[in-house]
Amino acid sequence: MRRARRAAPGPLPALGLLALGALSGLWTVVPRREPAAAAQRGPEPGPPAGKTFRALLAVPGREERDGGARPAAGGPSPVERGIFWSRELEARVPAGFAAEEAAAWLSAARAARVSALERGGCGRSSNRLARLSDGSRACVRYGVSPEQILGEALSYHLAGVLGMQQRLPPTALALVEAGGPRWAPVREELRGSLWAEGAVVSLTRWVDNLTAVVAPAPWGAEAGGGRRLRPLSAAGLGALPPAQLVELVQWSDLILFDYLTANFDRLVSNLFSLQWDPRVMRRATSNLLRGPDGGLVFLDNEAGLVHGYRLLAMWDPYNEPLLRSVCVFREGTARRVAELHRRRSAAAELRRRYRAREPLWARLGFLSERQAELLQARVDFVHRHIAHCRAQADAL
Questions:
Q1: Looking at the whole model, is its pTM more than 0.90?
Q2: Comparison of pLDDT for 396 and 305, the residue scoring more
Q3: Least buried of 8, 9, 41, 105, by fewest C-beta within 10 Å?
């Protein structure tokens, strides 16, 4: 790919998305950490001179293709039954990585030999860009610890459980065996990589022509001398151009997904940086890029589920308010969350999918019992939040 630099919820207004830039006053300062390097990260441009946050909302080049058209007064609403994106709007969301296409790539990648390993383009210095014998390329990630590779793999399969796997590039596990036939063409490169023999790495499909994504503009306003979340109203959603609404459909899934996985290395890392960089929300969002079809691509999920669950106390003060700021959802996502809540089967469904689709699953194992409980608790929290949003909408 051409690398383009790369407990129940409290009350909130019924409809809305993100007041992202207004979050800087919500949390106390915590010690700075260095975010994990992200593969295929987009550039981090500042806003062009004279541009406002409203201008930064626009998807580059797409509003012009839409003619800047906005829904006519009295036209179809982007929201149905108070909290669900309309079917017409969801139909406009780019398809992303289709299931059949992803399955074909995974099958080919698992059978292919690694013909070359290159430095750069895939995040931290221990990672490599692999050229495979079938002609495709993949980012090979060698985690700081095995839990990061497990987090990457489990996050990919949880996205499948939730019905949003099309937003993540296909990801498989591979075993480093310098003496084996698969790695024979790159034996010398392996010696220089310092990868441990027998280590498990992840292979993530390389995608060309990804570009940076700037978070949607802050919807809130200062109130009472402080800053608070101010989600967008239904009327405000109806006033937005279709291209922006299509992107917000994907953002609603992203924030729900990152809450469930406790991923702190995407939007949360940007929010964390507000304490010393007030312009950070005008720059590229970590580990989120836009594909050639215009759809969002959720990259580098190593912080999810395992590593993120160890650090909940530090990062949930960011992840929870983000989830609470979303009260419009894809109906399919909400339905799957409701089913996982009703059956109390989040970990079981994830385990079943992971074991069925990842031949090397036993090399890394699965979630601990405590981590499985945390996943179910977070599913339950999301379900209660969606019910809260529905109750608020019904009361209007």
A1: no
A2: 305
A3: 8
Q: Is the pLDDT of residue 104 over 90?
A: yes
Hunting for tokens 């499985």 — which residue is that?
Answer: 372
Q: How many residues are there in the chain? A: 396
Rounded to an integer, what distance in angstroms lies between the CA atom of residue 305 and that of residue 377?
Answer: 12
**Residues 202-220 as b or e (16 or more Cβ within 10 Å = b):** bbbbbbeebbbbbbbbbbb
Say if residues 36 and 300 touch (Cβ distance below 8 Å).
yes
Q: 11-15, 119-123, 355-359: lowest mean pLDDT where?
A: 11-15
As given in the structure block, the two tokens for residue 2 are 């051409």
Q: What is the DSSP string of 209-277?
A: S-EEEEPPPP---EETTEE---PPPHHHHHTS-HHHHHHHHHHHHHHHHHHHHT--SSHHHHHHGGGT-
Distance separating alpha carbons of residues 2 and 73, to the nearest angstrom: 42
CA distance 374 to 289: 28
Query: What is the maximal distance between C-alpha atoms in the chain?
Result: 67
- The per-residue pLDDT for 303 is 93
Tokens of 282: 């005008």
pLDDT, tens only, 42-91: 333 333 333 332 232 233 333 333 333 444 445 678 999 989 999 999 99
302 within 8 A of 143, measured Cβ to Cβ: yes
Cβ-contact 114, 189 below 8 angstroms: no
State the average pLDDT over residues 274-292: 87
Q: What is the dihedral of CA 111, 115, 118, 123, to 10 degrees?
A: 0
Alpha helices in the chain (DSSP H): 53-56, 62-65, 87-90, 99-111, 146-162, 187-193, 234-238, 242-261, 267-272, 307-310, 312-324, 331-343, 346-357, 361-364, 369-395
Q: Is the pLDDT of residue 22 over 90?
A: no
Determine contact, residues 286/265, Cβ cutoff 8 Å.
yes
